Amino acid sequence: xxxxxxxxxxxxxxxxxxxxxxxxxxxxxxxxxxxxxxxxxxxxxxxxxxxxxxxxxxxxxxxxxxxxxxxxxxxxxxxxxxxxxxxxxxxxxxxxxxx
Length: 99
Known about the structure:
This protein is 86% helix and 0% strand. With 99 residues, it is mostly helical. Helix 3 (34-42) crosses helix 4, helix 3 (34-42) packs across helix 5 and helix 4 (44-62) packs antiparallel against helix 5 (68-98). It is elongated and about 65 Å long.
C-alpha cells in the first residue's frame, strides 16, 4: 500500500468511526456540560481558551494530524476544562454555604 492509499483508508475509517460515535453519543455534541455553560457566563476568557483549543484540535483531528501541536492543543483544552470544573465546584460550594 502506498502512503496515499494508507491515508485514504485511514480517513475513511475515521469518518466511519466518527459517524458511529456521533449517532450513539449525540448528547455529548448537542450541548456543553454544565461547567462549560457556567464558564461561558462567569469565566468567559477561560471558556474562550478552552473552546479555541478544542476547535483547533478538532480541525487537526479531522485532517489526521496527530503531531506535537495536536497533543498540546488537547492538553490546553483539558487543562482549561479542569480549571473551569474547579471554579464551578467552588461556585457551587459558595452558593451552598450562603443558602
